[in-house]
Amino acid sequence: METFTNIAQDWYGFSLLAGIVLLLFGGHLLVEGSVAIAKRLGVGTLVIGLTIVAFSTSSPELAFNIISSLNNHGDLSLGNIFGSNIANIGLVLGIGALICKLPVTGQVVKMEFPLLVVATIIVGVVCYFQGLSMIGACVLLLMFCLLMWKWFTLGKRESVIGIEAEDITPEVQCSSIASWAMLLGGLVMLGLGGKATELGAVSAALSFGMSEILVGGSIVAIATSLPELVTTVIAARKGHPDLAVGNVVGSNIFNILFVLPISVLVAPGMTIAVPSSALAYIFIMVVMTIIAWILTRSDKLVKPKEGALLVGLFIIYLVYISIWKSGG
Fold first, then answer.
1. Residues 213-269: pLDDT tens digits?
2. Whole-angstrom Cα Rg for the chain
3. Buried residues in 7-35 as b, exposed as e (16+ CB within 10 A)
4. Which CATH class is domain 2-324?
5. N or C: which end of the chain has fewer CB atoms below 10 A?
6. CA distance 79 to 315
């Protein structure tokens, strides 16, 4: 294990690239296996779309954050979560809107976006005033459990998103053994990818004089947001705009109400200190989320020019944190 660590640190560029590839392929295998198993068990398509698909696109963030937190790199974990949510809003939702107009008409999307805004603000306030501790993490997980209960309740009724999810999720064309093999193989690849990416990111940060939160909020955040980008582009191109928006909203909710508290609970001492340099990321995440919500509420349509606005704001964010260097 020590030899692997040394090689990964010395060849941090290759380690970072290999880790990202493993995260992406691992997430792909996980979603295919999970959906196949869920359909065999008779789980509704709405539940699949809001839970399994959303979880799978957030699985790279989860794998990376668990490894980073266990190795006491809390800044990387925070940067990844905040940066990923910013990327999902600015880059993923923006590109989706550029591909086609994104009408927001689904009942679930209209309910979940306000919830995302509230949850984002709560996380921002908690981080600002007291940092992330076990108590705060448990509160966020409780909110997540209540949301899961609501999703499963909604899964008993027809939903636009539930119908659309069926169009981009794979049909059951493999055996039960193959389904479980894909799921377990995806988990293994996510674990290896998370470790390789964490080692490469830390080494890159040290080599270039970058702070961990800057690496997590830019390079790693964009990389772990690629599954959301692919899913959103597919949904938009297939004419399922509600699912494109729902994917972004669901993934961001998973990130802050599930991935973030899990990162805290596995960290040494079950706490992650929030550096002052993270406050800018938190503020940008809250503002970007509110802007996206306003755009969806204005005329229930995210138009291409509004998508260009979101992408432009994301580019400004990248330039700002690169010049600013994220302090300590």
1. 787 888 778 777 777 777 677 666 766 666 667 778 888 999 999 999 999 999 888
2. 19
3. ebbeebeebbebbbebbbebbbbbbbbbb
4. mainly alpha
5. N
6. 17
Q: Are 37 and 179 in contact (CB under 8 A)?
A: yes
| Residue 133 β-bridge partners | 271
Where do the DSSP E strands lie in the chain? Answer: 102-103, 132-133, 271-272, 301-302
Tokens at 311, concatenated: 């992408």
- Rounded to the nearest 5 percent, the helix, strand and coil shares of the chain are 85, 0, 15
How much is the pTM? 0.76
Task: Write the DSSP string, 87-128.
Answer: HIIIIIIHHHHHHS-EE---HHHHHHHHHHHHHHHHHHHHHH
What are the residue boundaries of the structural domains of the chain, listed by start? Answer: 2-324
- pLDDT tens digit string along 88-106? 999 988 888 887 777 666 6
β-bridge mates for residue 132, sequence order? 272
Q: Which residues of the chain have pLDDT under 70?
A: 1-11, 27, 30-31, 34-35, 38-39, 41-53, 56-57, 103-110, 130, 152, 154-173, 191, 194, 198, 202, 205-206, 231, 234-236, 238-244, 298-300, 324-328
C-alpha 61/C-alpha 220 separation (Å) is 9
